[in-house]
Amino acid sequence: MSQLQDVETAVSVCYKVTIDGRDLGSFSSCEGMGVEVVMETREEGGNNGYVWQLPSRLKFPNVKFSRPLGKQTSQITSWIAEMVTGYQRHTATIEAMTANGTVVATWSLNEVVPVRWTGPQLSPDQPKVLTETLEIAHHGFIPNG
Q: Which CATH number belongs to the domain containing residue 61 in this structure?
């Protein structure tokens, strides 16, 4: 029973994102973290009982981060602006943190490239919280050690 009390759970989390040591700040949502094993099917002649399902490759969806607009947006826009002269793939680290700053999970992503940044919708007739979204592509997880 005492072991259960020592476990941190991510009840109220934010996601701190770092790209090769460049702190992009904390985000309030993170979507798309995952992996899919692509399966190929093969039918065997004379075997009508089943079809072979064979794993072929891993597929990683894009990851989207969102947050209220703030001063840290300049880190994102300067990172994306660097792509004008050519792009380089980077390593990203994502830390899921509780409200008091305790890290409950960490993921490292290989060969990260920014795909899309969406800024706030500026409309004076509908005041609301201004948000931004960053979408990145990657080539898989790096084992944390």
A: 2.30.110
CB contact at 8 A, 28 and 67: yes
Question: Which are the contacts of 79, defined by CB distance < 8 A and separation ≥ 6?
Answer: 19, 22, 24, 114
- Using alpha carbons, select from 71, 78, 74, 66 the residue that is nearest to residue 131: 66
- Angle (CA) 57-141-71 rounded to 5° is 135
Instruction: Give me the number of domains the chain comprises.
Output: 1
Euclidean distance between CA atoms 6 and 87, whole angstroms: 43
For 26, the domain range is 2-142
pTM exceeds 0.90, yes or no: no
Q: What is the pLDDT of residues 111-134, one digit of tens each?
A: 999 999 998 887 777 778 889 999
